[in-house]
């Protein structure tokens, strides 16, 4: 990605446009995660929690909070960023953006920044909603904020890549629906992988979402399925991988230029 004089006005224009699009559906954006979170607590916290009181010394209702937030953060980050860049491709306005005095880096900052902001807001809404159902404490607030930011940025970039790759609206939903959501449910979002017998516990370690959920849960309760260092290393490596892919896309013009 080319680097020159930073065009803050261009970045702000993209960011403001994307945020305005979200604000037009603000009630839907807020009501949906609140209702969904409430249903999860009713189903998982009530039905399962009544039979499984604690996991690793943590009340089950509190235990599933990091998994709920991570599930929403992953799906919302991908969805917000992918539709944000795909829509200009669909309408043809992407060529106006490419010819504008805005660099590739500034374009990515605008789109990814807006998508990450929207995802973070929804994640915080879910966190606030969770406190209505369970007693929740955060042992390491700085780590929690770091994981929120890194995850939102990384998967917003991942969604940006999907939006460029997709040829239709159907393809925008393939990765979140068939890959990310199942991996999250199988990644210890609602249980600890230590509860699994071998060889399934070892198999679970090949699920990348395990490291995200585990690290985020550690920030709440000081415990996770894998070490905090491994979790941070994984999210950092994934961030660099996405950044490298986006750099390649703009250098080659992959699905951006005819």
TrEMBL record:
Protein localization: Cell inner membrane; Membrane
Transmembrane parts of this sequence: 26-48, 60-87, 107-133, 145-166, 172-191, 203-220, 226-250
Signal peptide feature range: none
Domain ABC transmembrane type-2: 24-253
InterPro entries: ABC-2_transport_permease, ABC2_TM, ABC2_TM_bact-type, ABC_2_transport
Pfam families per UniProt: ABC2_membrane
Domain of life, per lineage: Bacteria
Keywords: Cell membrane, Membrane, Transmembrane, Transmembrane helix, Transport
Coiled-coil regions, chain positions: none
Membrane topology annotation: Multi-pass membrane protein
Membership in a protein family: Belongs to the ABC-2 integral membrane protein family.
Name the record gives this protein: Transport permease protein
Species of the source: Stakelama flava
């Amino acid at each position: 990605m080319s680097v020159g004089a930073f065009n803050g006005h261009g970045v702000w224009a993209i960011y403001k446009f994307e945020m305005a699009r979200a604000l037009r559906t603000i009630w839907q954006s807020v009501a949906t995660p609140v209702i969904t979170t409430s249903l999860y607590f009713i189903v998982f916290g009530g039905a399962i929690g009544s039979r499984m009181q604690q996991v690793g010394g943590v009340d089950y209702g509190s235990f599933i909070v990091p998994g709920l937030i991570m599930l929403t953060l992953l799906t919302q980050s991908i969805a917000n960023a992918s539709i944000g860049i795909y829509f200009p491709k669909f309408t043809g306005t992407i060529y106006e953006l490419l010819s504008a005095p805005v660099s590739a880096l500034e374009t990515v900052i605008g789109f990814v920044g807006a998508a990450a902001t929207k995802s973070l807001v929804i994640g915080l809404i879910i966190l606030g909603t969770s406190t209505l159902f369970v007693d929740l404490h955060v042992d390491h607030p700085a780590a929690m904020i770091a994981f929120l930011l890194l995850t939102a940025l990384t998967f917003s970039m991942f969604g940006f890549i999907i939006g460029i790759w997709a040829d239709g609206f159907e393809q925008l939903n393939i990765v979140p629906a068939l890959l990310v959501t199942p991996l999250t449910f199988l990644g210890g979002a609602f249980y600890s992988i230590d509860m699994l017998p071998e060889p399934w516990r070892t198999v679970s370690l090949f699920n990348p979402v395990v490291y995200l959920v585990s690290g985020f849960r550690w920030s709440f309760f000081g415990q996770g399925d894998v070490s905090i260092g491994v979790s941070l290393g994984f999210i950092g490596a994934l961030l660099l991988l996405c950044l490298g892919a986006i750099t390649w896309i703009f250098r080659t013009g992959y699905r951006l230029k005819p």
